[in-house]
Write a structure and sequence with these properties.
2 helices, single chain, 168 residues, 9 strands, F-box-assoc_dom_typ1, five-stranded antiparallel beta sheet, alpha+beta, globular
């Protein structure tokens, strides 16, 4: 059983979205869990919402995600954050973990679909914008992407490559 991540201490009404992934890092012979949480933007009742300080704080809060990485070797969580995140929704039912990088599908403020990735080796978070935009129907493109990833994973397993996927 994993120790509780500090990111799990938030209440569900404080979280806009969250994502999990599980994988293996062969370079260091370690299993990892990646936990990404975007907190819900809170609007204080008593603040001056037109003040520059408030708007700057609001922009920071609403565009930051918290990232926790659990290492089986160390038995601990490492917490970091990423600013300038434009993701408003993540398809949390499926994640893919390949070569030290966790992948998810999400949407930005313009409802464009993106591939979200977090590289556990470099601790780099990245959003690949508009890579799923080629099809008119957004839900079809998500399903097509998931199908292609599953097909790739099946092929890799057939060729005796070690891969991990997580669905919850």
């Amino acid at each position: 059983m994993l120790p509780v991540s500090r990111l799990s201490e938030y209440y569900s009404n404080e979280i806009e979205w969250k994502a999990l992934a599980f994988g293996f890092l062969p370079e260091v012979n370690d299993y990892v869990v990646v936990h990404v949480v975007k907190l819900e933007t809170v609007f204080p009742d008593d603040s001056d919402q037109d003040s520059p300080d408030y708007l700057e704080l609001l922009n920071y809060i609403s565009n930051t995600v918290m990232i926790g990485v659990y290492s089986l070797n160390t038995g601990s969580w490492k917490i970091s954050s990423q600013d300038d995140v434009e993701i408003t929704w993540v398809w949390t039912e499926q994640s893919v973990y390949v070569n030290g990088t966790a992948f998810w599908i999400g949407e930005d403020y313009a409802a464009d679909q993106l591939v979200i990735q977090f590289d556990t080796k470099t601790e780099m978070y990245c959003e690949k914008s508009r890579c799923l935009r080629s099809l008119e129907l957004r839900n079809v493109s998500i399903l097509l992407f998931i199908h292609l990833v599953n097909l790739l994973l099946t092929l890799l397993k057939t060729l005796n490559f070690d891969t991990w996927t997580c669905g919850y």
